[in-house]
Amino acid sequence: MPGSRLVKMIKKVIIDRGLPDRAIADVMGITVIYWNSLANGNRQIRSLGKEKLQLVADFLGLPLIQVYNLADFFTPQDFVYKKDLDEQLWLSIEKMGSDPTWAGYIPKKDEWAQPPLSVLMTMVLLYEQLS
Question: What is the pTM of this model?
Fold first, then answer.
């Protein structure tokens, strides 16, 4: 369900803070019925306007862009300005192959096409963060 990561995070914060289920509906200025419709996937959370999502961001203590990301407004391709994403990611994987710590973990070229793009990008981003 698109936006399920955001819904799960909202529910977790409500539980962690010991708030009633209707707390997020009150924060956003919507009815509990509408919130339940969003939470159950009957309505898409990304259909909320920027003002309501900003209220959610404030409630969660997150930047608005992260709330948009959790609501699945974006795909990994939205963050890429290079024409050939696969080529750029593969260059990073080749760099990992020259690193003795990571060399044993990199996928072969034919294995590289199998995982979803988000998994490949996560792998490359983790390597870049750690190296």
Answer: 0.61
